Amino acid sequence: MLAPGIFLVIFYYIVVFLSNRMLTSTTEEKENRVTEMILTSISATPFVVGKLITILILRAIKIFELLVKILIEL
User: In whole angstroms, what is the distance from residue 19 CA to residue 52 CA?
Assistant: First the structure.
């Protein structure tokens, strides 16, 4: 019962917090016309997948950093 609850919390975190960051970064790139320059050399699907993977990696590092800080203080 504990494992499904943990996965539910992780899924909720990804959907709520990471989607907001993804939309914010995409909007900023659209305003600065970075996206148009990048999409001239690659298609949209690898571009979006790459953005998702990098955001997930950065969030995993942040979660690991937070867990290390919590464990150090215990």
Answer: 9
